Amino acid sequence: MPVAYLRTLTAPERTLRTDVHLGLFLAFNAGAINAGGFLAVSQYTSHMTGLVSEMADHLALGQMDLVKGALISVLSFLAGAATSAIMINWARRRRSRHEFSAPLLLVAILMLAFGVLGAYHRVIGSSLIMTVVLLCFIMGLQNAMITKVSNSVIRTTHVTGMVTDIGIELGRLLYWNRTPDSPEHPAVRANLRRLRLHLSLVLMFFLGGLLGALGFKHLGYIATVPPALLLAALSSLQFIPDRNADARTPVRRPVSVDDQA
Questions:
Q1: Measuring CA to CA, how many Å separate 39 from each of 2, 110, 130, 132, 209?
Q2: Cβ–Cβ contacts within 10 Å for residue 220, how many?
Q3: Burial call 73-97: b when 16+ CB within 10 Å, e when fewer
Q4: Helix intervals (H) in 94-240
Q5: What domains, with CATH codes, occur in the chain?
Q6: Cα 23 from Cα 110, distance rounded (Å)
């Protein structure tokens, strides 16, 4: 049943399948927010590497106002990640089923606020720094949540790391093992499961960015509302009582992406 499976995507019981499916959806969402945010504030709000580099450059040039702007962005992302960790650990210590759905619901609410306020009241548009703070906070919140869900296997905004992992696995795939496989000299083999995972995540981030940019270009801020409502619906399923919940026992990692397919 589709609804029953959708409920498992944010459940405390985890499998590799649910981790991957949730990660793909959130990578798409991150790409859309990142691209739409760029059109709104002329800044990519998930690119912490670039922001830290900007801080160093502007500091060297004595451009302190720009240093402050980049620092605020990084601190906002950091605050979002910390908030996600606090919410997850609070729920986990109380054996709540909302440890992952609650942070996602907060992401949806903040996305909805960004879209509605920006479209109808221009509150967001009138304050550039607050828009940047909100978007960076959302990115940190979401990325920390999927990182906690997957035991640091999946990240939805860290494309640099994903592309690096793709390159590593491609290098292993292309490696020519000239000697027979042996315990002393094991053959170099690519982890095809990991390669497929990161290729899929990068593709979903790209597609999300493409649709997010097109949506913002043609619809403006209101383009954020549909994905926010979809995310809210997904995360809200865990708040609906499930008569089978008491029969479950948490399963954290029955299969790892590092296991060979």
A1: 35, 18, 15, 12, 11
A2: 16
A3: bbebbeebbebbbebbeebeeeeeb
A4: 101-116, 128-149, 159-174, 192-219, 225-236
A5: 15-177+187-238 (1.20.1250)
A6: 19
186 DSSP 8-state letter: P
pLDDT one-digit tens code per residue, 196-247: 999 999 999 999 999 999 999 999 889 999 999 999 999 999 888 776 655 4
Q: How far apart are CA 18 and CA 5, in angstroms?
A: 9
| Calpha distance 213→207 (Å, rounded) | 10
Amino acid letter at 179? Answer: T
CA–CA distance, 95 with 43 (Å, rounded to integer): 39
CA distance 228 to 158: 21
Task: Tell me the C-alpha distance between 119 and 198, whole Å.
Answer: 34
**pLDDT tens-digit readout, 103-132:** 999 999 999 999 888 877 665 555 778 888
